[in-house]
UniProtKB/TrEMBL annotation:
Protein name per its UniProtKB record: Nucleoside diphosphate kinase
Organism of origin: Pedobacter petrophilus
Upper taxonomic lineage: Bacteria, Pseudomonadati, Bacteroidota, Sphingobacteriia, Sphingobacteriales
Keywords for the protein's UniProt record, in alphabetical order: ATP-binding, Cytoplasm, Kinase, Magnesium, Metal-binding, Nucleotide metabolism, Nucleotide-binding, Phosphoprotein, Transferase
Stored InterPro entries: NDK-like_dom, NDK-like_dom_sf, Nucleoside_diP_kinase
Role summary: Major role in the synthesis of nucleoside triphosphates other than ATP. The ATP gamma phosphate is transferred to the NDP beta phosphate via a ping-pong mechanism, using a phosphorylated active-site intermediate.
SUPFAM superfamilies per the UniProt record, alphabetical: Nucleoside diphosphate kinase, NDK
Gene name as annotated: ndk
Cellular component terms per the entry's GO annotation: cytoplasm
Subcellular localization(s) per the UniProt record: Cytoplasm
Gene Ontology MF terms in the entry: ATP binding; metal ion binding; nucleoside diphosphate kinase activity
Active site as annotated: H117
PANTHER family: NUCLEOSIDE DIPHOSPHATE KINASE (PTHR46161), NUCLEOSIDE DIPHOSPHATE KINASE DDB_G0292928-RELATED (PTHR46161:SF3)
Membrane-spanning ranges: none
Amino acid sequence: MSTNRTFTMIKPDAVANGHIGSILNDITNAGFKIIALKYTKLTDETAGQFYAVHAERPFYKDLVSFMSSGPIVAAILEKDNAIEDFRKLIGATNPAEAAEGTIRQKYAKSIDANAVHGSDSDENAEIEGNFFFKADERF
Ligand code: RTP
Ligand code: MG
């Protein structure tokens, strides 16, 4: 399994607030190569499937309804040490705790509407990328 890829979504809040371009710019400036890219919208059902790992958590229902509330941008990204470096680039889950200069510190307003998703492991990056992209959609 590759260790140099991660999966991201620009979440509905960041899309609605006009940050798609700025966030993709930050991502490419940080050295990530875009392997796949899609502007789409999750339904309640597909958001529920994507976040099934959190099904038992208290915030699951709100998370699913937020993630299906508007369009998102999904992408597979490539870079050495992608998982760890990308999570460093986006900052802490709660933007109030995110380090200066991170994507969540710059563009997110709350722990629920926190601008971006980043995979937490190689295994999940593979699963999440496969959720959105077929082989012929990767370059
Ligand atoms: P993500 O998966 O979206 O990249 O975020 P993450 O790894 O930093 O956080 P995770 O624990 O995977 O949680 C997924 C999303 O659920 C919301 N959340 N709310 N109210 C809460 O305590 C809480 N904890 C998590 C966040 O929007 C988080 O991004
Ligand atoms: Mg997570």
